[in-house]
User: Fold these one by one.
Assistant:
Number 1:
Amino acid sequence: DTGVSQNPRHKITKRGQNVTFRCDPISEHNRLYWYRQTLGQGPEFLTYFQNEAQLEKSRLLSDRFSAERPKGSFSTLEIQRTEQGDSAMYLCASSLRGGRADTQYFGPGTRLTVL
Amino acid sequence: GENVEQHPSTLSVQEGDSAVIKCTYSDSASNYFPWYKQELGKRPQLIIDIRSNVGEKKDQRIAVTLNKTAKHFSLHITETQPEDSAVYFCAAYSGGGADGLTFGKGTHLIIQP
């Protein structure tokens, strides 16, 4: 499968615990995005990377959230001290930088449930 | 920042009929407008997109139109089939330092047999 992959697909955790998700983009794509999607809503942008550089963060990304893409390939999103409001689907997307707007391809998501 | 409104939230059509979903955006600098289809429990999949230098784009039964003056764009699906049933999201890209897509809230399309 040459598409975007994410692990784990599901995560159940207790409030206050830390969780980490992984995203593997399409291999030649140099841009990687994180979105959050709650039930009945469209995806909301969180942050994105161009290669290993994190270039933009949404105001939705609180201090408890941190994302990395250390070698410009896979990325991790960590949520510290999880809260019930963090329960959502976390989607990763990747694109190939070219022109001003790039087609983004999404992964299957990680569904987080905070009890 | 960009704001995208999408209507209707639910659309039920008879199999074989056409479906139209409409979106408006707020940022006149937006220049890229993709449409994604999301089936229950699955990833959003790009079905068609349009850039601001064209007014219409067609791919088999799917077409998208863009009116930059009015800041709205629409998805048209003709000869609907049961497999078209899904949630459809429109999105806009405005750049300006925030390189994420801004999505609408989605339209649940139901194809009645």
Number 2:
Amino acid sequence: AQSVTQPDIHITVSEGASLELRCNYSYGATPYLFWYVQSPGQGLQLLLKYFSGDTLVQGIKGFEAEFKRSQSSFNLRKPSVHWSDAAEYFCAVGAGEGNNDMRFGAGTRLTVKP
Amino acid sequence: DAGVIQSPRHEVTEMGQEVTLRCKPISGHDYLFWYRQTMMRGLELLIYFNNNVPIDDSGMPEDRFSAKMPNASFSTLKIQPSEPRDSAVYFCASSRTGEAFFGQGTRLTVV
């Protein structure tokens, strides 16, 4: 089955600074890739997804992610972080069309300093 | 659509009791997932259904856990008997085109 690694358990950035959260996946075919955000006490909300086509995808709240097949990566970026971005971020990989089995990484907790 | 609806939001039960968690997926979604989230193990896929049929239950921890989906609009996750180590947040999610939509979760505490 597919799997996801998020190397950073916790990241702290200053408000206004840029952000990059790392995600590496393992899957034998072209995967479906996702980033979700979870605020405390809440469910997971989809930020963006990659199925095919342009490898740079735009999401909600000013986030973007780039699919790099050669590196098996799907890193999440934001040029300027806001205090409200503090949350837990999860990368996920799906098995692709016809199979919605989805596996999540361990998550990266983002702290934003004022 | 109201999104994925889970009930109850919080459940506190005594060890040995039966616990039933409920989920109503988004109308028209043909996949339904049950996840468990803990600090130690993160977000774990327990089981998922396609068109009400269980496809993969390899994530179900043991026989104390069972899940059903009697129709397209309802699923249950049952733990019998419950144990303190079952304490976690249980999420239900549904999907149709690949991305999953999550409910608010049920926080289960077994004392």
